[in-house]
Amino acid sequence: MKKPITSSLPISGLTKACLLVILSCSLGTVMAQDTTANHSVVKKTSYVKNTFDGNFIIDNQTVMVPVKGTFEFDIQHRFGTVNNGFTDLFGIFSGATMKLGFSYTPVNNLQLGFDATNENMQVDWNLKFALLKQTKDGSTPVSITYFGNLAMDTRKKDSTNLFVNVSDRLSYFSQIIIARKFSDKFSLQISPSVSAFNNPAGYLNVYGTQMPQWTGAHFSISASGRYKISDGSSLIANYDQPLSQQPGGNTPRPNISFGIEFRTSGHDFEIFFGNYSSLLQQNNNLYNINDVAKGQFLIGFNISRLWNF
């Protein structure tokens, strides 16, 4: 009897061949998926940091918004003008204006704040929102931030004001801050703004002078710069120019200021000379009468303390 013909060797060879083909295809698929995955990774946007060192640059807000969870306490102080010399120790013993402020960043790019000043017993609520951030690759060349406030004069009605109702006490300020960090040392920002008072006629006597009775928005623009001279200190300068003309030629004076800033991990300190004496931007933009050409400038300082939660 003939033995049955076996096909173990041919089948085994065929099986190996099939397994080899399947394995090659699988490896090719995995490699193709891995390559596709690598190509599909989106490059993370990298933003420029520390365009300015803090929230303030002399009399203006900077483009910066603190990181989420930052609580900030601010002390701002403006002495009297220096033109009286030793009579009041260059304004230090003259009447001074001060403001205390609190702010918090509840979410990324948004800061909320509340301030109170002894100037006309005014309080204000404010917000700051980063609209655009400068990128390291240059695809976004500037940072843009909005700042605005709503202020209220809380003085009792008397001979120095004509407030009839609550709305008469309100004033507003809105500003778009456009900034660019040109290098690790130099940053510059330009900030157009608009100020408005519900009842300008209510302010009969501000800074010792009769205020014009006019209505409508008042426009101005400022330019601020910082140049770092060390890791923790910078030279700072600011210029504010009123743009709107008031009736009777009572256009407010521009502001020229310069100083030095010191920065640590939790503190920011600025000391400077300038001719803005108010601590609310809308007051300065409408009612500043200090003329630097006549020596009517003053010493001021800002102190900020930050905590992160």
What is the chain-wise order of helices and strands? HEEEEEEEEEEEEEEEHE
The amount of helix comes to 10-25%
**Unreliable residue stretches:** 1-10
What's the number of structural domains?
1
**What share of residues are in beta strands?**
35-45%
Span of the ends, CA to CA: 93 Å
Assigned CATH class: Mainly Beta
Global shape: globular
CA radius of gyration is 31 Å
Main sheet overview = 12 strands, antiparallel, barrel
CATH architecture: Beta Barrel
Q: Estimate the mean pLDDT confidence.
A: 85
Query: What's the total number of strands?
Result: 16
Number of helices: 2
CATH superfamily: monomeric porin ompg
* Biggest sheet: strand arrangement: 3-4-5-6-7-8-9-12-13-14-15-16
Provide the structure class: mainly beta
Question: What descriptors fit this protein?
Answer:
12-stranded antiparallel beta barrel, Porin, 309 residues, 16 strands, 44% strand, two-stranded antiparallel sheet
Strand-helix topology:
Elements: H1 8-39, E1 56-57, E2 60-61, E3 70-81, E4 97-107, E5 110-117, E6 122-132, E7 143-153, E8 170-181, E9 186-197, E10 205-206, E11 209-210, E12 218-230, E13 233-242, E14 255-263, E15 267-274, H2 281-287, E16 298-308
Antiparallel strand pairs: 1-2, 3-4, 3-16, 4-5, 5-6, 6-7, 7-8, 8-9, 9-12, 10-11, 12-13, 13-14, 14-15, 15-16
